[in-house]
Amino acid sequence: MTNPQHTPPASWGLQEGDPISAELTALRRLGGGSAYDAYLAFDERCYAPVVVKLVRPDQVEDESTLRGLRREAAMLEAVRHPSVVRLLAQEPEGERPHLVLEHLDGPRLSSLIRRHGSLQSYQYLPLAIDVAAAIHYFAHEALVHLDIKPSNIIMGAPAKLIDLSVMRTTTDAAALSYPIGTDAYLAPEQADPPHTGEPGVASDVWGLGSTLFHAVAGYRPFPDGDPESADLVERFPQVALRAAELPDDVPDEVAKLIIAMLEKRPANRPRPAEVADTLQPVLEALPRGRLAGFKVR
């Protein structure tokens, strides 16, 4: 039995002014999960605020967690796109393994939905076009994000994707044999590969479709699954169920596109560029006053 006195704490418990490293000073905790914490920090090298993705103290000896941090760093180094957060520095080893990311001045899409419910068209159209452009770029580079969801999108002009911790090459994604992603937003083929199909670029299109549905409607397209269930459909209702009905006030072009993005068969979903090309005219048709702060492409 492990001696409790030698069990690492689950959190660093950093307060404003505490050092993270020689160059990084904590300002406040932004959030986190089971393996990582995110802190807003001041970087003496950049002389600016940054976001630090920090491995939790009880995970610093966990090879799976450290491998995920190294993978995310490698993917961020490989991906250079206006709608993807930038990696500024990395320290994948040592007492406090971490990544240093650019600080994005905007709310998460999930926070907006939680506070306000459904978004207006001048809010959700630009973000969908921006993310579709990023997915198109990933496909060009033979990469897939595999975890597109509202909490991984920072609203702004442009909107930006964060958290590339489960990103894979298209070859590695197609070879997956276990679920990967977030249950409520992952595509059917991600639920139980290879039995439900091979994850790929179309899986990111599904993730954007689920995210766009949530932003447009204020509720998710499928009911909550049971993460503890061994039954595939009980855990992942999207494998078998039809998506919920969208509100009547959603523009026809947008509603048809979202339903197409949520087609069960990956081959029946639109390509990322088709998503952007379909939504662009809808955005351009909005009254100009609604587009203050957003650039029409």
Name the structural class: alpha+beta
Task: Give the terminus-to-terminus CA distance.
Answer: 60 Å
How many alpha or pi helices? 9
Q: Radius of gyration in whole Å, from Cα? A: 20 Å
Which outline best applies? globular
Indicate the proportion of strand residues: 5-15%
- What's the order of the H and E elements? EEEHEEHHEEEEHHHHHH
Number of strands: 9
| Main sheet characteristics | 5 strands, antiparallel
What is the averaged pLDDT score? 92
Ranges with pLDDT <50 over ≥5 residues? 291-297
Give the spatial strand order of the biggest sheet. Answer: 1-2-3-5-4
The helicity comes to 25-40%
What can you see in these coordinates?
The chain has about 300 residues and is of the alpha+beta class. Helix content is about 35%, strand content about 15%. It has 9 helices and 9 strands. The chain has helices at about 65-80, 110-115, 120-140, 170-175, 190, 200-215, 230-235, 250-260, 270-285, and strands spanning about 25-30, 35-45, 50-55, 85-90, 100, 145, 155, 160, 170. A 5-stranded antiparallel β-sheet has the order 1-2-3-5-4, with helices on one face. The chain has a two-stranded antiparallel sheet with strand order 6-9. A two-stranded antiparallel ribbon has the order 7-8. Strand 2 and strand 3 form a beta hairpin. Helix 8 packs antiparallel against helix 9. The longest helix is centred in the middle third of the chain and has 20 residues, at about 120-140. Mean pLDDT is about 90; it is low at about 290-295.
